[in-house]
Design brief:
Helix content is 28%, strand content 24%. It is α/β, with parallel strands linked by helices and 377 residues long. The relative contact order is 0.14. The protein has two domains: 219 residues, Alanine racemase (TIM Barrel, Alpha-Beta Barrel), CATH 3.20.20.10; 128 residues, Lyase, Ornithine Decarboxylase, Chain A, domain 1 (Beta Barrel). The protein has eleven helices and 21 strands.
Length: 377
């Protein structure tokens, strides 16, 4: 059992052994010939990007994916030497930082393509880039349907070298539908067109976590697992196809216990009024820690292996729970917000359902004032 450290007891524990297990399952799934680009953007999906990346580098991750230049620089400063792809691309005034930190930008628009090529060429250098193709996501990327207009410009690049080409599936949780099939077909057509025009990127990639689990046709040269690295299935049905272990648990301790009579109002706005004599526990965490206010009167936590409901509105720094039905409870008792306690478990998917969101948001919303303690045995 992991002990919560002294001081403010609201912490996240990150199991690097589970992370390594998940990576090895991915490697086994895709085989030795397919590279693995591990997605560690958004602070490693809330798990702590530098520690996560070091552990994955030790496991043999071929590359890392981040959202911004700043995220890439953070990994370089932490000693990560593995290739890093910056998915949001590069602004012209960032060119020197990309060179200084050996980062690879994504190109997703003709305007940025021309400006970046000029900026790199003026320095008499060359820069590897990955080309983003919009096959139906409708977000960023060069439209596949307009390949005739942008391909001639790609061929005229002076300083940018097309190392990779990729796209993004619209369905993150299930890639077995007709829309995914259509995106895959469009992507293959664009790649074939590029090669016919003499552009042969060495890294063609498309598969997200769901496709890594269920769609080998989308593997190409490299896969881009994200959520599954952290032990969460894109959909529950995928649990039968690969065995993953949750990496993060979020815990705190009871700050105060208070007996209150029936008719007592708890927290702001009188949204929770006790219907009986009750025992209310206050926890030293709130929405400033990333515990969503939408969990007010809706979420549950684990205390002594049993579930206790959130009572009243989640506050900025404090949250109350109703522990009337839990025996032998004391101030300082461990409370699990996310993870296991005995045989009971609260998953990120369950928390997401309470707040009508997705597990990604649950994980990445845990704020930086919650310490991440990385464990490796």
């Amino acid at each position: 059992m992991v002990t919560i450290p002294l001081g403010r007891p609201t912490v996240c524990f990150v199991d690097l052994n589970a992370l390594g297990w998940n990576f090895r399952q991915i490697r086994s799934k895709v085989g030795p010939q397919v590279k693995v680009l591990s997605m560690v953007k958004a602070n490693g999906y809330g798990h702590g990007a530098t520690a996560i990346s070091k552990a994955l580098a030790a496991e043999g991750s071929d590359a890392f994916g981040v959202a911004t230049l700043e995220e890439g620089v953070e990994l370089r400063q932490a000693g990560i030497r593995t290739p890093i792809l910056v998915l949001a691309g590069a602004y012209p005034d960032q060119v020197d930082q990309f060179f200084d930190n050996s980062l690879t930008p994504v190109i997703h628009a003709l305007e940025s393509l021309a400006k970046l090529d000029l900026a790199v060429h003026s320095r008499k250098k060359a820069l590897n880039v990955h080309l983003k193709i919009d096959t139906g996501m409708g977000r960023i990327g060069l439209l596949a349907a307009e390949v005739d207009s942008w391909l001639p410009k790609i061929k005229k690049l002076k300083a940018l070298k097309i190392e990779g080409v990729f796209s993004h599936f619209s369905h993150a949780e299930n890639v077995e539908g007709s829309y995914t099939t259509r995106q895959l077909r469009i992507f293959k057509t664009v790649v074939e067109r590029l090669r016919a025009e003499g552009i042969a990127p060495s890294l063609v990639h498309l598969a997200n976590s769901a496709a890594t689990i269920t769609l080998p046709a989308a593997y190409f040269d490299m896969v881009r697992p994200g959520l599954m690295l952290y032990g969460i299935y894109p959909s529950a049905a995928m649990a039968s196809q690969i065995c993953l272990k949750p990496v993060l648990s979020w815990k705190t301790r009871i700050l105060q216990l208070k007996k209150v009579p029936a008719g007592s109002s708890i927290s702001y706005g009188q949204t929770f009024v006790t219907k009986r004599d009750s025992l209310i526990a206050t926890l030293p965490m709130g929405y400033a820690d990333g515990y969503s206010r939408l969990l007010s009167n809706r979420g549950e936590v684990l205390v002594n292996g049993k579930r206790a409901p959130v009572a009243g509105r989640v506050c900025m720094d404090l949250t109350m729970i109703d522990v009337t039905d839990i025996e032998k409870i004391q101030p300082g008792d461990e409370v699990v917000l996310l993870g296991r306690q005995g045989d009971a478990e609260i998953s990120a998917d369950e928390m997401a359902a309470w707040t009508n969101t997705i597990s990604y948001e649950i994980l990445t919303s845990i704020s930086n004032r919650v310490p991440r303690i990385h464990l490796h045995t």
